[in-house]
TrEMBL record:
Segments of this protein annotated with the region Disordered: 127-149
An example Gene Ontology molecular-function term: metal ion binding
Species of provenance: Solanum chilense
Gene3D superfamilies reported in the protein's UniProt record: Cupredoxins - blue copper proteins (2.60.40.420)
Domain Phytocyanin per the UniProt entry, residue ranges: 24-122
InterPro entries registered for this protein in UniProt: Cupredoxin, Phytocyanin-like, Phytocyanin_dom
Protein name according to UniProt: Phytocyanin domain-containing protein
Signal peptide from the UniProt entry: 1-23
Amino acid sequence: MAKPLLNFVVLILISLIICSSSATNYIVGDNSGWDISTDLDTWLLGKKFKIGDVLVFQYSSLHSVSEVTKENFMGCNTSNVLDSSKNGNTTFTLTKPGDRYFVCGNRLHCLGGMKLHVDVENADGAAAGSPAAAPSPEGGASFSPSSKSKNPSFVPNFALSNIHVRLDSMILVILGLLLFTIPLV
């Protein structure tokens, strides 16, 4: 009787290690999506992005998402982008550590705060810095959204705002372990 229990404990520990290294899909802006009314500064709070995580941008036809350099991010330059999409459902996999910069393709929206800077941690959890909120535009001109309403004109219909792969993996592993440890008669 002790051997199946020991096997079960060892397998649980192994599954915890495996699941802790799983990737997470982050829906940018949660229920508000990638929208000018979304408070991206608040959305970033407490999030740690790791290699393998996925940023999911969901947005209306009024918007797009572009990955840009730091310089283009700071000036909301949308004419020279690294990658761009306007299909309404765009994913970016975080494949290496360091800073990543995303802006709305509409420059006025970007100037109004519709831009995102994330710092991707190394596999060991060390970060080059922490996620930073989009800085205010320089030069005296300031564009801001008319509101930070929690009821924007476009709200994607999500059952869950963040899809945590770790939880799904953990449940499957535990169910598998339970079936593995049950003695067959």
